[in-house]
Structure formats: C-alpha cells, structure tokens
Amino acid sequence: MPNRIAIAVHGGAGVMRNLTLPQQNMYCKALESALDAGHQILAGGGASLDAVTAAVVALEDDPLFNAGRGAVYNAAGKHELDASIMDGATLRAGAVAAVSRIRNPVLAARAVMEKSPHVLLVGRGAEQFARQHGLPLVRNTYFNTQERREALGKGLKRHHGTVGAVALDRRGNLAAATSTGGYTGKLPGRVGDTPLIGAGTYADNSSCAVSGTGWGEAFIRIALAHEVSARMRHRDEGIVQASKAALKSLVRIKGDGGLIALDRRGSITMPFNSEGMLRGCIHADGRRVVKIYR
User: Fold this and answer.
1) Which of 109, 184, 213, 240 has the fewest CB atoms within 10 Å distance of its CB?
2) Is 141 known to be catalytic?
C-alpha cells in the first residue's frame, strides 16, 4: 500500500507587480495555513478528498482570495461563485455555479457529488440543494470586501484569484478541488472553467489531479485540466512535461494563468505563464514550498 502523501494549493494567478512585501507575507501565510489544514488530514491517514476540501475551505474563508469571503463583484455589483471537486479513485465529481448565498461553495460541490445523481447544479437550485443538506447560507453581502469594491470601480480584471488544491493520500488516491468568484466585472450568469470538470478541475488515479487558475474562457476551450491527464495517459508523458505542454497550448489563444498538478508518485508541478501565481506545496518527502513569483 502506498504511504506517500503530498498536497499543493494555489490562490490565483495574474498581474501581481503591485504587491507590497507585507501583502506578499500575508498571502504566503494564508497559503501555509491552507496547506497545513489539508496536510494534517493526510498525515493522520485521512482521504485526499477530505484534504482538498479542508484546504479550499480555508482559502474560501480568507478574504485575501477571490473565492468565498473575498469573491469579486460582477458587473451588477453582486457576487456569483463557482466550485468543483473530483475524486480520482472513482471519477466521481460535483460542482456548483453562479451561486450567491452558499458560504463555502466547495462544500456544496462535494454534496452534489456525494448526495445527488448529478455533477453540476447552478444558481437557486444549487442553493436550495445546499440548504436541504444543512450547509450554511449567508446574505450576498457576506462576500463584500472593500478591496473588491475598489477593484470593480477601477475595472481591474487581470488577477485571477481562483483557489484550489490537489492531494495524494496514503491509499494512493488523488483528488482535486477548485473555487472562485470569477473575475471582476463579469456579466451576471457567467460561468468559467472552475466548475467545469476537465476545464479547471480534474482527478484520475491513472494519471494525475489538476486544479487551474487563469482566464477561464481559454481553459474551457482547451479543456486544460483534462489535457494534462490525457497527455499522461495517451502520450505517456510525465506530469511536468504534460503540464507544461497543456499550459503552452493556452498561448495560441492568448490565454494566461497556471495550474497545480500531482501524480500518484507524489510528483508535484506548479507551472504558470502569467506574471505570478500564489502557490504552495508539501512534497512527499516533507519539503515545503510557498511562492508567488518565479
């Protein structure tokens, strides 16, 4: 039985040249906390699904990130959130999109996966489902932050603050989860790659677990997360080569962003083609890495 464990998280990619040193330290500390939340579960023999859930919940609850509490505003001045989760052992998956009252969308995504015959629920239907299964609902104003309000006023769209996690547990099972508020000023009803299985999230024990962050429309068009898995399975590429090749395919459609990917051997890669990507990991040998820039 495999006994390696590993986890990686991300907190968004994009233009980050204006981050002050104190801000950089805040982001890195928050990534550390998310890593610890997931790794503690893995170290105790817990499942990769539980680990990615815990890590993403930690990031959703932190207003620094564009997911959950710190979600950006759409063009109507409201918040619409997306999330997904996938189990590499069974290929089960769940997702919610365009929800405005679910405190932790990743928990709703997991409920869709485990307590319904569906993969994706949207809008009010997803919120009603969440309520029926005891998940906390909040007013849309819960997601308000002054920084995001200022970003809407300035029309800032270039920082993709999606969060995500991938994990490998002691049983050799992989899982991935992703959550986002989309991008500032998006049209109401817009759905990006995050809740679309194969675009922003994918996990398959036969290949890898992937969570992406970037220009969602481009990720959808090339099915980025699944592309990494497909290259590993059909071209026999390693995780580093497959991830770089998949990301490179974004360039021809002028897409930007990054991804975190993990295979069953515990190998982790975190490539990006944007100015920076908030990212961190704990390798199978215990090495810890938290970075923003290259």
Assistant:
1) 240
2) no
